[in-house]
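Can you give me the bound-state structure? Components:
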Amino acid sequence: METERSSAELVDDAVVGQFARAALLAALLGAVAPVAIPLPLSPAPITLQVLFVFLAGLLLGPVWGSVSILLYLVAGAIGLPVFSGMTGGLGVLVGETGGYLWSYPIAAALIGALVHRGTDLRDPADVSTPFLVAVLVAATILIYGMGTAYMAWLLELEAWEAVTVGALPFVPGELLKMAAAIAIVKRGVVAPLRS
Amino acid sequence: MLTYEPDDTLAHRLDPRSKLGIQIGFAATALAHTSPRALATLTVLTAVILAVARVRPLRTLYAYRFALVLLAIAPIVAAITFGPPWIDLEDGLASAQAGYRVLLILLVSAAYVRSTPVRESRAAIQRTIPGKPGQVLGIGVALVVRFLPVLQADLRTIREAIAARLGTERGALERTTTIGLLGLTRAFDRADRLSLALRARCFAWNPTLPSLSFASRDVPALGLAVVLALSALL
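Here's the bound-state model for the whole set.
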C-alpha cells in the first residue's frame, strides 16, 4: 500500500464550500435524468437537465459552474447512469447527443461570466430580469447550436434536418425552463456562497 | 440498466487506463470512417470486444433504446427531400451508415462500463490527470457516485409529496419550478453539511491515491489502442 509522505496541503475553506456544492449539483443533474414532465402540444417532454445547467452558471459562477458540469460528464463517461434515458458510458459523449453534453459546461461558464461579471459571485436575485432573460437565451442558442451542428456532422444531415430533429421540438420546453430558472433565483431562497 | 458486473473476464483484469485508451482509439477511428469496409472491420472488432467482456448485446441495445430511436429517425429525415423525387435513398443510406458507427461506439463503451468498477475509474482519472485538476475530478466523481442515490431518493420524496397534494394537476411551469427549487435546496443543504465535514477532517489536495498498476496483459491492449487511434488518420 502506497502512502503519501509529503505534508498535507489543506484545501482553502472557500474552495471546499464551492467544491461540495459543485459535486452535489453534478449529482443532482444525474438524479433528474429520469424526471420528465409532459408538455401540452409538444412531442418532447421537459427534462430538467438544462434547468440545472442554467442554475449551475447562475448560482456557482463561471468557474465552479463549469467544474460541476464537467464532474457530471466524467461521472457519465465512466458509466454512471446519469445521461438522459438513464444511460452512461464514454460512447454517449461522442454519440448523437454529444454536442449538447459538451455545450453544457461552456453554457454554464458563459452564464456565470455574464451574470457575475468575473469570478467574484453576486446574488443573481439582484440582477435585472431582462438581462437574465437575455443571458439564458444566449446560453440556449449556444447549447442548441453546438448540439445540432455536431448531430448534423455526425449523422450526415443537412442543417435544417438537424434543426427539425434536434431543436424545434424542444423550443416550448426551453422557454419554460428559462422562466423556471429565473423564478428560482428571484425567489432568493438559495444564494451563491460568497468568499 | 447498464452497470458494472463482477466477473473474471480478460476485460475485468485489464488496467482501466488501457480500456479507456481502446475506447478513445475506437471512437476516433469510427468517427473518421464511414465506408462499408471500415464499418465491417469495426463490427468484427466490436463483436470481439463484447465477447471478451461478456456483454449481452440485446440487453445493452435495450439500455440504449432512447439513443437508438434518434439514430433510426435520422436516415428517414435525411432521405426526405422537398420536390421530386421526394425520397433520396443515397442521402438516407449515408446517414444510416453514419448512425451505425455511433451504435458501435456505444456498444464498445458498454464493455467498459460492465467490466470496470467506479473506484478503478476514479484511480485512473487521478493518476492520468496531474495536480489539482486531477484531484478535483477524482474526488468530485467519487462524491457524485456517493450522492447520486441519496439525491434520487430526495427527488422521489419530493415528487411523491407533490403528487399527494395533487401537484401533478398544476401547470408545467409551477411543477418545474417546485421540483427545481426543492431539489436544489436539499442538495445545497447537503453540500454545506458535507463541506463542514470535509474541513473537520482536514480535506487536503494530496491524499493517498488508490493503487493501480499496468501488467503484461495490458501491453497488447495498449498496442490496440494506439493502432486504432492511428488508423483514424488513414
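A couple of observations. Residues 10-116+213-231 of chain B form one domain. Chain B touches chain A through 85 residues (CB under 8 Å).
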